[in-house]
Write a sequence for this structure.
């Protein structure tokens, strides 16, 4: 195993208000492929923009077909050591917040309280009405889709129901973004893990944290455009370094 630089581990051990920012790379060790690594099944089809989903019944059918196909592929995904290490930091009282671009719900499955997981790209484990935001579970939608070839309308208001993720062209969730911005401005260490940092506006958050005085740590298998801005960069796999971060219960250590 490649030993992590002690400076990076010391910076994390000596931080009191860590904000973690995770991307699809956090879940590859759980068996969910990321978006941009070549061969990704997410890239097999051209994404369906939000506008097409809203305006076109055929696009909606195709979106649901793809959604259920992907769900079948990753149904058994379990949290990885990376997800668990962040729970360790939370229990040690040092995780001020968790912002994720992921839609897989694995941070919550690992044990982070759901209201402390800020999902800026939504959540794919349930659906919501685009009109009244009423939550819908996927099981009944799928049963209806398989029986009738289309998803049901919202039972509360008759509106269009969509997976609760943010599609290309869809407005970012305002409250989640506002919470993410506030956290980025108030942390003492911003910890990026498993993100290519090319998706905006999400990738503005590490910049904001750095400008607000936080240390910036980036852990990713490959270089990111924000590496030159970071105090510490670790180019490697999530598992080994997060096991080191969580060693000793993730307690604060003066250094
Ligand atoms: P991305 O695919 O653009 O980048 C992921 C990065 O993680 C890549 O640079 C890759 O090299 C790195 N990586 C992959 N596995 C790693 C590992 N084990 N250790 C260290 N690094 C690893 O993902 P992104 O930055 O999150 O942006 C893509 C968008 O796609 C996001 O908006 C996200 O919502 C969505 N997405 C989510 C999931 C999920 O929920 N699990 C999966 C695919 C895509």
């Amino acid at each position: 195993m490649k030993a992590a630089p002690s400076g990076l581990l010391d910076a994390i051990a000596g931080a009191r208000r860590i904000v973690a920012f995770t991307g699809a790379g956090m879940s590859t060790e759980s068996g969910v492929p990321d978006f941009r690594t070549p061969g990704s099944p997410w890239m097999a089809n051209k994404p369906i923009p939000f506008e097409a989903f809203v305006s076109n019944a055929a696009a909606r059918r195709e979106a649901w077909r793809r959604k259920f196909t992907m769900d079948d592929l990753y149904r058994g995904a379990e949290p990885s050591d990376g997800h668990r290490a962040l729970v360790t930091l939370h229990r040690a009282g040092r995780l001020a917040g968790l912002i994720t671009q992921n839609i897989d719900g694995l941070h919550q499955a690992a044990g982070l309280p759901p209201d402390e997981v800020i999902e800026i790209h939504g959540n794919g484990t349930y659906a919501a009405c685009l009109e009244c935001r009423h939550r819908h579970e996927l099981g009944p939608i799928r049963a209806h889709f398989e029986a009738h070839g289309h998803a049901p309308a919202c039972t509360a208001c008759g509106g269009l129901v969509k997976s609760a993720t943010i599609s290309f062209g869809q407005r970012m969730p305002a409250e989640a973004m506002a919470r993410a911005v506030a956290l980025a401005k108030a942390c003492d260490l911003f910890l990026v893990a498993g993100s290519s940092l090319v998706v905006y506006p999400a990738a503005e958050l590490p910049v904001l944290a750095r400008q607000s005085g936080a240390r910036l740590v980036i852990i990713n298998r490959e270089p990111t455009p924000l590496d030159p801005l970071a105090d510490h960069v670790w180019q490697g796999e999530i598992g080994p370094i997060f096991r080191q971060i969580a060693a000793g219960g993730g307690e604060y250590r003066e250094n």
Remarks:
- Residues 39 and 238 are 20 Å apart (CA to CA).
